[in-house]
């Protein structure tokens, strides 16, 4: 399998904000549209509100999936979950 890491700028809160917990669905969409994302996009679970249902700009994961045309899998913020989910991805 081949994986690509994309740098996402935080246009919503400002480029100096570099934590995943403050990235928005809109920033993800705007910067990932047109990229060859493959079969699955892995994102940190901290990118979602504490309720786990949407990004800070109210975009839902399902909406982002539909716009990008790729399945999104959320990963806990630790290396173990990243390795587990990438090794077991279809």
Structure description:
The protein has 90 residues and is α+β, with helices and mostly antiparallel strands. The chain has one domain. Helices cover 28% and strands 11% of the residues. The chain has helices spanning 25-32, 61-68, 79-87; strands spanning 40-44, 71-75. Helix 1 packs parallel to helix 2 (61-68).
The level of helicity is 25-40%
**What kind of sheet is the major sheet?**
2 strands, parallel
**Strands side by side in the biggest sheet:** 1-2
Helix/strand order, N-terminal first = HEHEH
Distance between the termini: 10 Å
**Total domains:** 1
Low-confidence stretches: none
Tell me the number of strands: 2
Number of helices: 3
- What structural class should be given to the helix and strand makeup? alpha+beta
Shape: globular
Give the percentage of residues in beta strands. 5-15%
Summed up, what is this model?
The chain is 28% helix and 11% strand.
Give descriptors for this structure.
single chain; 90 residues; alpha+beta; two-stranded parallel ribbon
Would you spell out the secondary-structure blueprint of this structure?
Blueprint: H1 25-32, E1 40-44, H2 61-68, E2 71-75, H3 79-87
Parallel strand pairs: 1-2
Helix pairs in contact: 1-2
